[in-house]
Amino acid sequence: MNSRQIKYFCEVVDAGSIVNAAKHLFVAPTAITMQVAQLESELGGALFDRKRRPMELTSLGKFFFPRAKELLRQANRLEEETCGLAAGRFGWIGIGFVRSTIYSLLPSAVRTFREQFPEVKIDLVEMLSEYQPEQLRNGRIQLGISRFIGTFDRPADLAHTVLFEDPFVAVLPLNHPLANRPSLHITELASNTFISYPKDPRSEFVRFLLAMLHQAGVKPYIGYEAIEIQTALGLVAAGLGFTLVGASVAENNRTDVTFIPVLDLPETSSVVAVTNENQDNKLVASFLAILMSQRPSG
Predict the structure, then answer these.
(1) Distance between CA 187 and CA 191 in Å, rounded?
(2) Are residues 284 and 253 in the same domain?
């Protein structure tokens, strides 16, 4: 199956007949007939009911047609964007990010970048910190926004820029006995069910978070393991336990939970921009500068 076969098939459907399709495509009707027949042979079934006049799509054709149209649209879009990049009409930047940053610096940084570079395509890819180095090295992204607890590995081929240190806050249900407190000690939550996140075999975040709690004298019972942070917050809102997030996550977030500063946790989380060490991409440098200018103060 190739793009010409798909194009000719879709044109027959849109034009209503092989003859009309041939006129639109400036080719001989026999060329279209041959391409459609080859397509049907490769797919293993007829796309048109040729016993009817005019021809109608078979059930297989009705299944195939909208998907074929979408495939053509994607191919055309890919060609246009790639040609635009090659011609220098616009650029492209891939940003990998951990979900927690959508509550703080990422949205404002993207808005500012788009204002400065309206013709640049921004490809935002949500991914955990542990997956970002691989994607940086293979070119899927050019900049990653990661979150780490305490010290973290800094491979020599990657550059790490700490954007800000984020102290932890406890997230409690609104009806929790401590919900109205201005602050609390982590030991006050020792008997509460803990909701961990993210649930991923490569994630080190939970392991470091639990080690930090153990160091503070708290060994919580893990009642639920959420795949991502928003699910964890939803479980808290349902009254199923508590969790810990960076203070920046509390900004512009849910109103069905309460965020309370914790006084005695020994570590903060670091929000870090990660790039390839020897990159000389001006767009990456510009986005990094915007991140640094819009990072939370204090």
Answers:
(1) 8
(2) no
Question: Could you report the per-residue pLDDT of 99-154, keeping only the tens digit for each?
Answer: 999 988 999 999 999 998 888 889 999 999 999 999 999 999 999 999 999 888 89
| 45 Cβ contact list (under 8 Å, min separation 6) | 58, 60
Is the domain of 260 the same as that of 277?
no
Number of H helices, E strands in the chain: 9, 12
CA–CA dist 210, 225 (Å, integer): 13
The full length of the chain comes to 298
d(CA 86, CA 253): 40
DSSP H or E run through 252: none
Same domain for 173 and 262: yes
Parallel/antiparallel/unpaired status of strands 48-49 and 56-57: antiparallel
Stretch (H or E) spanning 82: helix 59-87
* CA 114 vs CA 120, 149, 288: distances in Å: 7, 31, 13
Q: Which segments in the chain show pLDDT lower than 70?
A: 84-90, 297-298
Q: What one-letter code names the amino acid at 229? A: I
